[in-house]
Specification:
A five-stranded parallel β-sheet has the order 1-2-3-4-5, with helices on both faces. Strands 6-7-8 form a three-stranded parallel β-sheet. Helix content is 34%, strand content 13%. The chain starts with a helix and ends with a helix. With 316 residues, it is of the alpha/beta class. Helix 1 crosses helix 11 and helix 5 crosses helix 6. It has one domain: Alpha-Beta Barrel (TIM Barrel), CATH 3.20.20. The longest helix is centred in the C-terminal third of the chain and has 16 residues. The radius of gyration is 18 Å and the shape is globular. The structure holds zinc ion. The site of zinc ion has 4 residues, from loops. Zinc ion binds next to loops.
Amino acid sequence: MQLTRRNLMKAGAMSLAAPLAGCVSTRLPGQALSGDIDAHSHVWSDDLEKYPLGPWATPADMKPATFTADELLAVMKTSGIERAVLIQHAPLHGYDNSYVLDCARKRPGTFSVVAMINERTPNLKERLADLCDQGARGIRIGPTKHADRTLNVDPPNWLNAPGMELLWKHAAELNVAVCPLLSPEFLPSVDAMCEKHPDTTVVIDHFGRIEMGSAEQARWLTQLAKHPNVYVKASAFRNFGDKRAPYGDLAPLIKLVFDAFGPSRMMWASDCPYQLNDGNNYTDAVALMRDGLDFLSDHDRRAILRYTAERVFFHG
Ligand SMILES: [Zn+2]
């Protein structure tokens, strides 16, 4: 099958659960989708009256002091990236997704949202559907801490915790992706959960945070590829290898994911604003995916920079 945009989208539609009629599109009728996507960035506003910090946080935790949607767009523009998935930033705002949802509402088609929800809450499905109506296309989860900064009492069994089963079930029904941020030792627990929930779309953050060169951790990540609805973000380059631009040393890590999952289950992302610190930058991270890495074809690059994230996070 020729790898056209139409075919890619069709393939994606077949592999994802049908969305509920109640899920509204984040884009205006007739508005064209175009442009490459940064599938993972955080934003926050210094308007703390409108978007108050959680009780555990202070303005000193805002580093930088502000990183608004407009500031993110200015960074993206330097590299011709036109859309972004805004990831709820629990250290500042916990379960209060107001700012990222407002950003998506104000710029339909430009931003999608990965929100956070307390899976122990009553009426979980209704609350998930409400987030979906407001523009969320993913839910962020993690093994050690809840969004309100309370500790998970039993990290090894985090996916057996009350509510997780329901969250994965309803996420599939609502066509919302489950997005784990975890360290690699938790990857096998995701594997077991995917067995139980084959229809749930799962997007692993930042290469599963595996250590480059660890064969065991590489296996934990790549064994997830047998589940057709598992995706991996090639992201947060600042955390891997030399931990500085221009990132050519990450080629083996990116190839590992590419060989296991293929371009239609990989998406590039920056992890801004953190990607902008300590010898790291946005431009080189984009350039590696767009022009570096000679094992990638133009079609592969288009998928990794655009179509995969579009299918998972920018569907109506
Ligand atoms: Zn992040």
